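Milestone M4 deliverable, item 7.
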Amino acid sequence: MTNFKQKELIQILTDRIREKFQEVELINVSESWEDPETLWIHVTAPADEDRMVDLIEFAGDRTTDILMDCGYHMLVMPTRSAFRKQPYPRSEDNDLLLPNEMRQAATDAAYDG
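Output delivered:
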C-alpha cells in the first residue's frame, strides 16, 4: 500500500520521465513480491533500444535520489508491448489512482448510484 508521500514522489517521477520520454506512459504501480517496501513502477518501454537504455539510466538516477533523500525504494520497470497492461487511470484532477483508491472509488460509486 502506498502512502501520500510515495504517491507524490511517483507523480513527480513519472512527470519527469514523461518530460524526457514523451512516448512512455505509466502502466501501474505494484509492491515487489520480494519486499513489500519496494515499489515497482511499470511503464511502457520505448521502441528504440537506445532510448530504453537512456530511460533506465535516467530513472535509475531519479529513484536513487528518492531512496537517498526520502528512504523509499522504487524501481522503474519498462515493459514491452506484449506484456502491457492498461495504463493507470487518473482522477479528475489528473492524479494517479492507485489500486486501493481505485477499489474505494468503485465502492463509493456503487453506493452512490
